[in-house]
Each structure stands twice: as structure tokens, then as C-alpha cells.
């Protein structure tokens, strides 16, 4: 059975029918019979990085079959499992993963492949938790990537094949307290930017580019809240990620399991605004203040198109296509209004300010840079191209987006 789908934000229609194999063996048969195929996750990408002109395959009907290896502190599970479901199942067995993004609705496989992340000075991309990948490649052949191979294979946008199972690092289950704060003076945020993000396990700032910082979400593993202001921001019962429907947001002011507090939005509710577009750029921490000052310089032009920007930190890694490869970064995430005529002309202007500072774009969100300028941002670009060619010489798993970004 096949169907045709839009992405979550409904800003693009997928070009191909979607097949839902019920097992890895059925997936292998499907891939072997296809000339062009690509994996499709929970459809949260804003670019066609998961599209194809052949056949899309979604693994949402393959049982997750979670297996925890307590001795190794790892868990292996089907790639289509949603992050919130993975967190809940692990918690039931006394385990957790160290990091989660704002949306628990995203599949593990999609999150790993597309540079999804949370926030925290000591927390890397979700891809840094991966200890092994099981992949169905050309002709339906299965192989496993592990060890040193993961630096190139783990963050691949589906270019190497369809990831079926993923082994991730886990740790004993832990609780998180989430606190919210309103209206941090911009001067305070800028002067103490590093201290703000170092103040807790996970910190997010929500802002526009005129006026003060709208608010902060502070997620702690050890501290029982704040008695007073947080860098000039007053404690608040209101989640600054709230868009007017309280049931969408995870609870503030109380302790809870990490899988239900590290995300901003509840697994059981439709997340975020819904009618939106997104862009995101990762700036080396040493250039963070300069980047924010530069964006505020065009704040009057940005703000009419913007719902809000979330500022987060991500720790450096060694993954070849990671936006945090080689440097700790500040993530500057734009949640735009669903108005492409306003948003798209702003992207080159934003990139004019951020790319010279070493910023890299989030490939699953809207960005303008292409070609050689994009290539120069990734020291291991050619290494990944060689890996891709070895894994998929006939380009069974390419698509128009990957051909445009990586080349044919």
C-alpha cells in the first residue's frame, strides 16, 4: 500500500509514493526492486532532504524491538521510534538518553541523520550518542557501521541507505526540573552569555531582534530551582515556548522524568505553532556575541517575519557533516511565520552576516547557501563524498536536494 504525503509544516509535498514495509526483510525486497529510494521519517524537515523521485520508505510499521545492554550502557532499537517513545520505554527499564530536542515527536533515525539537537554546553548532537547503525543499502544488502566508521556515516541525510536499527549510549534514568523566566534584559544576556548557558544542564533563550530577551527555559538535574531572578529575568509560571495552548508545553516548576522535561512540547500534543517555517544556523561560540549583534542590526527587517528565535548551545563533535564539527556552537534557530515571500529574501541577508563568522546551516531547515561556499564550511566534505560513493556508487539513495548540495 502506498500513499502521498506532505511534511509536518505542509510547506512541501513529497514527490514519490510512500511504502510502509512491515519488516526489515520486506524493506530489503523493496529496496532491491527500486531504482531510486529514500527513507522518510516523521516528516519534520522543512527542506526536501528526505524526498526522492523514486520511492519513499517509512519504517513506522516495523516493530521497534528495544534491546538494552546494561553491561555496555547501550540500547538498540528500530530507527522509526519517536524520541519521546524511546525515552518513555527506556525510563520504564531504568535508563535514559542524555539529550533530547524540543520536539519529542521526531523519529530517532531522522533526528540522527539530520543534525537534530537539544541544548546544553556539555551536550552534543543526538548523533553523538550513536554507537552503531544497521543500514539497508543498494540491492537490499544489509551492513552495520560502528567504531570509527560512524564519524562519516551517522549524520548522512539518508545518502548511504535506509537506517533500520540504531544503537545509542544510555545512562541511568534521571529527573529534570524545568524552570521558566520572563524578560531578560538584552544587555544582561549579552554580557553574561557564557554564564547563562553554563548555569544549568540545559538552557534555552527565546528572543526576537528588537527589545529584550523574551524568556528562558532552564532545565536542571541537580538544582532545585531558583529563589530569585535568572540573570535579570523574573521567575514565571509561563513557558516562553508557549504559543497559547498550555497542554502543548512540558510542565515548568516541577521535577519529572528527563524524557518529559528536556523537550519543550508534550509528546501527546501537536507541537509548536504548526503553520510555520524554520531556519537554523550554528555559530562558533567565540563568535556568538558578534553574530547576535549583527542580527540585531537588521532586527527591524527580521521581526515582522518571525515568531521567535531560540538560542541553544551544542558541544563540539568529530562528525563529518555536523554543524558542530570541531567547535562548540551557539544554535540560532528561527521559527518563521508561514510567509515565504517574507522569509526567503531574508536568508541571504542573514547568511551574509553569519557565514563569514564560520556559521553552518541546518540542512533540514531553510537556507540559501549552496555550492563551493557551503563545501568550505566542512573540513571532511571530500571524505564524506568518498564514503558516499563507496556505499552507493549508483546513487540509489540520492535525491534532487542531495544532488544540489553534495553534487551528483
Helical content band: 10-25%
Please identify the top-level CATH class of the largest domain.
Alpha Beta
Question: Would you count the extended β strands for me?
Answer: 20
CATH architecture of the largest domain: 2-Layer Sandwich
What do these coordinates show?
The chain has 408 residues and is an alpha+beta fold. It folds into two domains: 67-173, Uridine Diphospho-n-acetylenolpyruvylglucosamine Reductase, domain 3 (2-Layer Sandwich), CATH 3.30.465.10; 175-366, Alpha-Beta Plaits (2-Layer Sandwich), CATH 3.30.70.2520. Helices cover 23% and strands 25% of the residues. It has 14 helices and 20 strands. Strands 12, 13, 14, 15, 16, 17, 18, 19 and 20 form a nine-stranded antiparallel β-sheet that branches. Strands 5-6-10-8-9 form a five-stranded antiparallel β-sheet. A four-stranded mixed β-sheet has the order 1-2-4-3, with no helix packed on it. A hairpin with a 5-residue loop joins strand 8 and strand 9. The two termini are 31 Å apart. The model is unreliable at 243-247 (pLDDT under 50). It comes from Amnibacterium setariae. InterPro entries: ALO_C (IPR007173), FAD-bd_PCMH (IPR016166), FAD-bd_PCMH-like_sf (IPR036318), FAD-bd_PCMH_sub1 (IPR016167), FAD-bd_PCMH_sub2 (IPR016169), FAD_lactone_oxidase-like (IPR010031), Oxid_FAD_bind_N (IPR006094), Vanillyl_alc_oxidase_C-sub2 (IPR016171). Residues 11-173 form the FAD-binding PCMH-type domain.
Amino acid at each position: 500500500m502506498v500513499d502521498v504525503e506532505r511534511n509536518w509544516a505542509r510547506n512541501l509535498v513529497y514527490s514519490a509514493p510512500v511504502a510502509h514495509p512491515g519488516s526489515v526483510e520486506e524493506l530489503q525486497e523493496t529496496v532491491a526492486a527500486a531504482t531510486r529510494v529514500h527513507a522518510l521519517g516523521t516528516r519534520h524537515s522543512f527542506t526536501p532532504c528526505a524526498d526522492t523521485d523514486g520511492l519513499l520508505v517509512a519504517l513506522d510499521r516495523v516493530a521497534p524491538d528495544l534491546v538494552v545492554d546494561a553491561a555496555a550502557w547501550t540500547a538498540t532499537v528500530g530507527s522509526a521510534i519517536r524520541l519521546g517513545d524511546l525515552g518513555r520505554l527506556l525510563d520504564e527499564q531504568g535508563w535514559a538518553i542524555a539529550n533530547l530536542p524540543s520536539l519529542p515527536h521526531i523519529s530517532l533515525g531522522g533526528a540522527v541523520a539530520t543534525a537534530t539537537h537539544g541544548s546544553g554546553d556539555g551536550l552534543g548532537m543526538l548523533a553523538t550518542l550513536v554507537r552503531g547503525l544497521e543500514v539497508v543499502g543498494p540491492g537490499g544488502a544489509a551492513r552495520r557501521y560502528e567504531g570509527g566508521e560512524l564519524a562519516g556515516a551517522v549524520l548522512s541525510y539518508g545518502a548511504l541507505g535506509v537506517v533500520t536499527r540504531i544503537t545509542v549510549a544510555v545512562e541511568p534514568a534521571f529527573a529534570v526540573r524545568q524552570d521558566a523566566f520572563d524578560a531578560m534584559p538584552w544587555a544582561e544576556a549579552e554580557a553574561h552569555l557564557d554564564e547563562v548557558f553554563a548555569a544549568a544542564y540545559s538552557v534555552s533563550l527565546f528572543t526576537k531582534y528588537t527589545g529584550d530577551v523574551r524568556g528562558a527555559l532552564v532545565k536542571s538535574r541537580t538544582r532545585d530551582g531558583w529563589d530569585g531572578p535568572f540573570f535579570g529575568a523574573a521567575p514565571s509560571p509561563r513557558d516562553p515556548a508557549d504559543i497559547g495552548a498550555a497542554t502543548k508545553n512540558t510542565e515548568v516548576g516541577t521535577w519529572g522524568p528527563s524524557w518529559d522535561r528536556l523537550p519543550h512540547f508534550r509528546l501527546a500534543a501537536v507541537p509548536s505553532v504548526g503553520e510555520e517555517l524554520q531556519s537554523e544556523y550554528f555559530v562558533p561560540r567565540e563568535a556568538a556575541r558578534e553574530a547576535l549583534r549583527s542580527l540585531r542590526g537588521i532586527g527591524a527587517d527580521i521581526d515582522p517575519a518571525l515568531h521567535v528565535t531560540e538560542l541553544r548551545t551544542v558541544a563540539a563533535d568529530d562528525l563529518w557533516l555536523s554543524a558542530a564539527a570541531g567547535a562548540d556552537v551557539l544554535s540560532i534557530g528561527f521559527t518563521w511565520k508561514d510567509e515565504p515571500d517574507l522569509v526567503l529574501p531574508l536568508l541571504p541577508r542573514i547568511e551574509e552576516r553569519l557565514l563569514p563568522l564560520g556559521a553552518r546551516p541546518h540542512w533540514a531547515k531553510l537556507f540559501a547557501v549552496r555550492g563551493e561556499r557551503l563545501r568550505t564550511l566542512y573540513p571532511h566534505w571530500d571524505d564524506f563524498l568518498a564514503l558516499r560513493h563507496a556505499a552507493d556508487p549508483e546513487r540509489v539513495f540520492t535525491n534532487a536536494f542531495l544532488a544540489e548540495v553534495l553534487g551528483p
